[in-house]
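Re-run requested by the PI after the first attempt was lost when the workstation crashed. Everything re-entered from the original request form. Ligand of interest: zinc ion.
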Amino acid sequence: MSLFAFSCDNAVATETPATATVTTQSAKAPRGVVENVLTKAEQDALTPDMVIQSFKEGNVRFQRNDLTARDHSEQVRASTYAQFPKAIVLSCVDSRVPVEDVFDRGIGDIFVARVAGNFVNEDILGSMEFACKVSGSKLVLVMGHEHCGAVKAAVDDVKIGNITPMLEKIKPAVAQVEYDGDRSSKNDAFVHMACESNVRNTIARIRKNSPILQEMEANDEIKIIGAVYDMDDGSVDFMN
Ligand SMILES: [Zn+2]
C-alpha cells in the first residue's frame, strides 16, 4: 500500500519538482549541516557511475568516523511529499550493517531493501523496479557482508520453521562454489566464497527475472552491481 502511496506522491512531485527543494537555512542548524534532500533535477543529473563514486566516498567518511552532519527535522519536512533517491541497496537484515551510515547517506538518498541473506524474490524485484523505473534511481547495489548468519545457516543446511524455505533461496549459491576444502560454516574462507557467490547469484536473478531492470541496464540508465561489507573495518569491497 505504501508503495502506491509513494508512487502517487512521486507522480505529483514530478510535475512540480520545485516543491521538493528546500533551501531556507534553519535558525537552529549549525553551519555546514545538510538540510536539503535530493531533488528531481539533481537525481536526473546523476549517472550510475556518479552514484557509485558517491557511495565510495561516503564509505571512506564512514570508516573515518566522519559522517556528514544532517538536520533530520529539516530533511523530514523537505521530503514530506516527494522522494528522488539515487539508488536502491539490497542488504541483509544484520544489525551490524547500518546501510545509510555505511555510505554516509541520509533521508531521501537511498531506498533500502533488507532480507536475511540479501536474495531477491518477486517482492524485492518489484521494489527494485519501483525504485528505478518509477522513482528514477540509477543504481541497484546488492550488498552481502562478512560473517553472515544466513549464509552460514545455508552452508550448514539448517532447518528451522520458516527459516528453512528462506535458506532455499541462498543454497543454490552455496552449491555453485567450487571448493574442495571444508565446506562448513567453521571455515571462514568458504563462508566468504559463499557470500560472494550469493551476491553474484542475486544479481543474475535480478537480470533474469526483471526484464524491466535488464532493459534499463542495457540502455545505461542504471547499473546493477555487487559488494561485500567488511565487518572488521567498515569498508565496502565493490565486486565489479
Ligand atoms: Zn547476514
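Saved to the shared folder this time. The beta strands are 87-91, 110-114, 139-145, 223-229, 236-238.
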